[in-house]
């Protein structure tokens, strides 16, 4: 299952508006996206958020990792109206957990929380040599590659990561 | 169990109903002199304690000499020996240790490295990303197709060639190529501040 290009384009546009705090444009884009595309956009946000959480933690994130991620993402430069607790709940229960958005958040928060949390995570934790949209490219590429890769390669990937870890450049 | 197979102990006799093995001392060519010599040594060792002590000391001396010879041969390389491979550790080098797993009740140690400073976040957040649709490429393609169609029409005599039209088409082609080349440069280098 590849990335839906139409939903991807809408997701990217919305995240851009959220990151630049262009909330009127974001609302207009939401209305344009419509009922059919919006669930796919939220699915892509969950994928991107989960990827960032695993990438930054360097392991399957523990609760301590998620609290730290949420704390740092909540103080992101976007100044979006989202709390540390909402980001933590979104990551632990939806992006990395089994629950659905409408089981966790009230109706008026179902769309803003995933978008705001993803925007904050992308802006706060993009690798230093990349813009946030280039990091998003990396996430989609990785997701598509993972979809095509048999799970039997996972032990070999873990071995490779342990024996030849990627060096994180000093800030 | 042994009786079931007709085995009757060390005398190497078999019961009458047991089939005779194909290769046994009875059918093999007799090698009496060698067996007799070995049996004599064994008997002597069993019966003579001094002989046992002497044999033990002899073996110990041979073992010590072999160990000393091995140590000398491996202490310094002989002429023509290959130098040690770079990835081969000497016995005194410590083995590389795996990094211990990070404690799970504390956040991973990479957050400080990965979180971008607020000024970097603000700068990156202000920038507009690349246009998903390659607009400059589209402009160039439309202009090129228009130029081609006009050229064909003039060649077939369907349109009259005027210098003004030729100049306008040429200017449009130049502008579209400049836009296209500029967008290619931006795609390659992004919109990072120069310097």
Please explain how this structure is put together.
The complex is a heterodimer of chains A (171) and B (195). Chain A contains 8 helices and no strands. Chain A has helices at 5-19, 23-57, 63-74, 84-95, 101-104, 112-125, 132-148, 154-163. Chain A is globular. Chain B contains 6 helices and no strands. Chain B is elongated and about 130 Å long. The two termini of chain B are 92 Å apart. Among the domains of chain B are: 39-71; 133-195. Chain B is mainly alpha-helical. Chain B is 54% helix and 0% strand. Classes of the chains: A mainly alpha (171), B mainly alpha (195). Chain A binds chain B through residues 9, 12-13, 16, 19-21, 56-59, 61-62, 64-65, 67-69, 72, 76-78, 123-128, 131-134, 162, 168, 170-171, and chain B through 98, 102, 104-108, 110-118, 120-122, 124-130, 132, 190.
Which terms would index this structure?
heterodimer, A: 171 residues, mainly alpha, 8 helices, 70% helix, B: 195 residues, 6 helices, disordered C terminus
Strand content of chain B: under 5%
How large is the share of residues in beta strands of chain A?
under 5%
Helix content of chain A: 55-70%
Largest sheet geometry of chain A = none
Total helical segments of chain A: 8
Summarize the structure.
By secondary structure, chain A is an all-alpha fold. Chain A has helices spanning about 5-20, 25-55, 65-75, 85-95, 100-105, 110-125, 130-150, 155-165.
Secondary-structure map:
The complex is a heterodimer of chains A (171) and B (195).
Chain A: H1 5-19, H2 23-57, H3 63-74, H4 84-95, H5 101-104, H6 112-125, H7 132-148, H8 154-163
Helix pairs in contact in A: 1-2, 1-6, 2-6, 2-7, 3-4, 3-6
Chain B: H1 32-47, H2 49-75, H3 111-114, H4 118-126, H5 135-156, H6 163-189
Helix pairs in contact in B: 5-6
């Amino acid at each position: 299952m590849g990335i839906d290009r139409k939903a991807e384009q809408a997701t990217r546009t919305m995240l851009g508006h959220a990151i630049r705090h262009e909330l009127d444009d974001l609302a207009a884009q939401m209305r344009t996206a419509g009922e059919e595309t919006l669930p796919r956009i939220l699915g892509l946000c969950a994928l991107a958020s989960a990827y960032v959480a695993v990438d930054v933690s360097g392991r399957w994130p523990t609760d301590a990792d998620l609290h730290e991620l949420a704390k740092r993402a909540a103080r992101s430069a976007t100044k979006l109206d989202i709390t540390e607790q909402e980001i933590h709940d979104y990551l632990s229960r939806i992006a990395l957990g089994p629950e659905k958005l409408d089981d966790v958040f009230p109706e008026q928060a179902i769309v803003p929380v995933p978008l705001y949390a993803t925007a904050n995570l992308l802006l706060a934790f993009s690798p230093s040599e990349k813009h946030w949209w280039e990091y998003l490219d990396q996430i989609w590429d990785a997701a598509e590659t993972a979809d095509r890769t048999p799970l039997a390669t996972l032990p070999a990937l873990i071995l490779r990561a342990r024996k030849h870890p990627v060096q994180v450049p000093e800030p | 169990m042994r009786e079931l197979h007709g085995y009757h102990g060390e005398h190497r006799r078999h019961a009458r109903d047991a089939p005779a093995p194909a290769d046994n001392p009875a059918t093999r060519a007799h090698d009496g002199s060698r067996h007799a010599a070995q049996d004599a040594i064994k008997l002597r060792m069993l019966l003579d304690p001094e002989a046992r002590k002497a044999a033990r000391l002899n073996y110990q001396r041979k073992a010590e000499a072999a160990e000393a010879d091995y140590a000398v041969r491996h202490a310094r390389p002989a002429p023509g020996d290959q130098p040690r491979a770079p990835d081969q550790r000497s016995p005194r080098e410590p083995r590389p240790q795996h990094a211990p797993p990070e404690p799970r009740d504390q956040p991973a140690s990479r957050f400080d490295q990965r979180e971008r400073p607020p000024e970097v976040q603000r700068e990156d957040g202000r920038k507009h990303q690349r246009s998903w649709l390659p607009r400059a490429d589209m402009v160039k393609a439309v202009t090129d197709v228009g130029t081609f169609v006009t050229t064909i029409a003039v060649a077939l005599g369907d349109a009259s060639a005027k210098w003004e039209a030729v100049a306008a088409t040429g200017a449009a082609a130049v502008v579209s190529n400049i836009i296209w080349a500029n967008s290619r440069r931006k795609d390659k280098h992004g919109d990072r501040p120069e310097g």
